Structures are given as C-alpha cells and as structure tokens.
C-alpha cells in the first residue's frame, strides 16, 4: 500500500498537489478532498455485528478516503464499522494529526476540502449550509 497510497510528506510533494488543485479548479493550497464511503461486508457474528449496521441498515465498514486533484487515493482509513460517523473517523486519523501539525508548525498554509459531515477547522474547509444568497458565505461555498 505505501508504494501507491501516500499523503504528501515533504514540502515539494505538498506544493505539487496544491499546484494541481490551483491549475485545475482555481483553488489554492488544497492538499486533498476528504470523504467517507460505506463498503458492504458480510455481517460479523452477533453481538459485534451490530456495530457494522449503518444508518440505512446495511452491514458496512465506513472507509475514509483522501484524494488528490486527479482523484488518486493519497490516504485511506478502513478500520471503522459502518455505525461510526465520518467526523469521528477523521478525529482519530493520522491525516488529521498531519494537517494539525502542518498548521501548528506553520508549514505552508494547506487545507483539505470536506463536505458538511465534517466540522470546519483551520485546515479543513467545509460548506456553510446556512449561507445567505449573495453573502460572503455563499461566495466561500462556490
């Protein structure tokens, strides 16, 4: 896995990813887009299996992925059952620790893009679901 899936660990690699997002989408300083997806599995035995039932009643694991501008996976976390929320997975992930380290060490000014399932953080941009028309929040969302 490390040969094919690796979060940019050195400044040159981070700048390459960020340059790609800027060139393709006009978004500066983005290291990746993050989201979780449910992957169906065979039900584990009771009582453990209950943890794998997601909100739709399917038996899954909730897999967190971070992708670069070309949708290549640069980070994956597949260790949580389907019942676990995306934010919990992120809060307990190595990628959050790395983003926090970059931010607190003032190493560049990098961000991940996430959906509304994540809390806004200094290194994680999420949409403002209550943005008024023609507001700065709506401009931010766009």
TrEMBL record:
Keywords: Hydrolase, Metal-binding, Nuclease, Nucleus. Belongs to the HARBI1 family. Residues 34-129 form the DDE Tnp4 domain. InterPro entries: HARBI1-like, HARBI1_dom. It is found in: Nucleus. Transmembrane segments: none annotated. Its cofactor is a divalent metal cation. This is DDE Tnp4 domain-containing protein. GO terms for molecular function: hydrolase activity; metal ion binding; nuclease activity. It comes from Parnassius mnemosyne (clouded apollo). GO terms for cellular component: nucleus. The keyword NAD does not apply. The keyword Cytoplasm does not apply. It holds the Pfam family DDE_Tnp_4.
